Amino acid sequence: MSYLMKIVLVGNPGVGKTSYLQYFCPKSFSPHYAATIGADFCLTYRMIRNLSIKFQLWDLVPLAKEGTIRSVFYYGALGAIVMFDVTDPESFAACEFWIEAIFKHNGKGVIPIILVGNKIDLRVSVGSADSPNFVSDSQALEFCDTLSKRTLEFGFSVQYFPVSAKTGINVSEVLDRLGNIYLDQI
After folding, report:
1. What pLDDT sits at residue 32?
2. Three-state DSSP class for residue 115
3. Which of 28, 136, 144, 149 suits a disulfide with 158, CB 3.0-4.6 Å?
4. Range of the domain at 120
5. pLDDT at position 59, please?
């Protein structure tokens, strides 16, 4: 038996959503992707608990933050990846906006989300991870704790994964975690 799980991937422009998507549906990594227009998606399969899950990954248009909510892309999502760039505190601050948009427009209300801090490879190459120009893992974990107070009544906590879409660090683990939450709920 195979399960289908629609996942929306949201975040500010330039946080690395398209690079993340390309990890599963490879073309090749590029540090210079054009902005996504509307939405892009790919299908990928993962075996979780000896069950096949087909993930429909939807990379949603960043312009939604500017007032053009394309709720049709959110509709039917069973999970979400909310991504920020660890070198861009403004993208981290915008995560609250993206989470509210997901909960409002998916047709189910509160759904499982994973907070993803992308570009951790830049922490090492640019400077100290404790720099005020970086979002620390402890800041992200604190945000997840706050969100989890809201989601625990729905049977899940919000988890954080620091990733690098460029190097592949923790990229697959995000889908594995969402798949496990999904299987727990069904």
Report:
1. 45
2. strand
3. 144
4. 2-185
5. 86
Residue-level pLDDT at 126: 55
Number of domains in the chain: 1
pTM here is: 0.87
* pLDDT lower than 70: segments of the chain: 26-40, 61-70, 124-132
* pLDDT value of position 123: 80
- CATH assignment at residue 102: 3.40.50.300
Query: How far, in Å, CA of 182 to CA of 110, rounded?
Result: 13
Which stretches does DSSP call E strand in 31-178? 39-48, 51-60, 79-85, 113-118, 159-162
Is residue 39 within 8 Å of 59, Cβ to Cβ?
yes
* C-alpha separations of 169 from 121, 122, 149 in Å: 9, 12, 28
Amino acid at 49: R
Tokens of 133: 């120009």
**H or E segment and range at residue 183:** helix 171-185
Is residue 70 within 8 A of residue 64, CB to CB? The reply is yes
Alpha-helix residue ranges (DSSP H) falling in 40-154: 71-74, 89-93, 95-105, 121-126, 137-151
The span from the CA of 116 to the CA of 171, in Å, is 9
| Closest C-alpha among 110, 106, 112 to residue 82 | 112
Q: Do 92 and 139 meet the contact criterion of CB atoms below 8 Å apart?
A: yes
